[in-house]
């Protein structure tokens, strides 16, 4: 049984849960999803992989650093304890990885600029260069990328990878293609 933790601070949580369940069915994998709201939720479960949904990074930082939660520092610590732990971070989640603002090293080595694809009204759908259907919602933009390029949109980097840690500026959970959620599960195998 593979245990997947999902940060429930805010944002596109339920779509991610549906996407990971579809991916598990496609791979005939038995999985359990653990909803993480507090540091204790993380400490009381042994998760194999982590999903950081999109939403609003400012809200996630406030909630996740609040004394009633402290989930965010616990998650950063979990990632830093073992670099190989699989993580799928999307949009606001990617912002948190590139810019954890906790005084520690970034979890992926890339510059990132919030809302740089424009406002809500500028949200768009477009096929990535690899054919993946990219859904971009008030998406951030990567600047200089010092880790591995995972995927591009018209040549521009929209996904960065460091080993099993993947940060995407789009929303794979809002497309029918479960490739990225399958990758997360396959990294646990
Ligand atoms: N604009 C959001 C932020 O700055 C990210 C948008 C998203 O996750 N869809 O956190």
Topology (elements, then pairings):
Layout: E1 2-7, H1 13-26, E2 31-36, H2 39-43, E3 49-52, H3 57-65, H4 71-81, E4 87-90, H5 92-98, E5 110-113, E6 124-127, E7 133-136, E8 141-145, E9 148-153, E10 156-162, E11 165-168, H6 179-188
Parallel strand pairs: 1-2, 1-3, 3-4, 4-11
Antiparallel strand pairs: 5-8, 6-7, 9-10, 10-11
Helix pairs in contact: 1-6
Primary descriptors:
189 residues, binds glutamine, Rossmann fold, single chain, alpha/beta, 11 strands, 6 helices, 7-stranded mixed sheet, two-stranded antiparallel ribbon
State the gist of this model.
The protein is α/β, with parallel strands linked by helices and 189 residues long. The chain contains six helices and eleven strands. The strands form three sheets. The chain has a seven-stranded mixed beta sheet, with helices on both faces. It has a two-stranded antiparallel sheet with strand order 5-8. Strands 6-7 form a two-stranded antiparallel sheet.
What does this entry look like structurally?
With 189 residues, the chain is an alpha/beta fold. The model has no long low-confidence stretch (mean pLDDT 96). Helix 1 packs across helix 6. It has six helices and eleven strands. Helix content is 30%, strand content 29%. Bound molecules: glutamine (GLN). Glutamine binds next to helix 5.
Number of helices: 6
What letter string, H or E per element, gives the SSE order? Answer: EHEHEHHEHEEEEEEEH
Radius of gyration: 15 Å
Strand content: 25-35%
Assembly state of the chains shown: single chain
Quick one: how many beta strands?
A: 11
- CATH architecture grouping: 3-Layer(aba) Sandwich
Instruction: Determine and state the CATH class.
Output: Alpha Beta
Shape: globular
CATH topology description: Rossmann fold
Counting structural domains, the number is 1
Overall pLDDT score? 96
Bound molecules: glutamine
Helix percentage:
25-40%
């Amino acid at each position: 049984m593979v245990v997947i933790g999902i940060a429930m601070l805010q944002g596109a949580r339920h779509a991610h849960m549906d996407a990971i369940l579809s991916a598990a069915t496609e791979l005939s994998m038995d999985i359990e999803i653990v909803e993480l709201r507090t540091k204790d939720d993380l400490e009381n479960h042994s998760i194999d992989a982590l999903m950081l949904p999109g939403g609003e990074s400012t809200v996630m930082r406030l909630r996740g650093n609040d004394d009633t939660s402290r989930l965010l520092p616990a998650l950063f610590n979990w990632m830093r304890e073992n670099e190989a732990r699989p993580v799928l971070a999307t949009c606001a989640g990617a912002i948190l990885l590139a810019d954890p603002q906790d005084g520690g090293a970034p979890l992926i080595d890339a510059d990132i600029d919030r809302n740089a694809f424009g406002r809500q009204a500028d949200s768009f759908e477009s096929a990535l260069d690899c054919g993946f259907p990219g859904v971009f919602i008030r998406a951030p933009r990567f600047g200089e990328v010092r880790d591995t390029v995972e995927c591009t949109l018209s040549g521009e980097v929209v996904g960065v990878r460091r080993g099993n840690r993947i940060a995407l500026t789009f929303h794979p959970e809002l497309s029918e293609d479960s490739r990225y959620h399958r990758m997360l599960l396959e990294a646990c195998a």
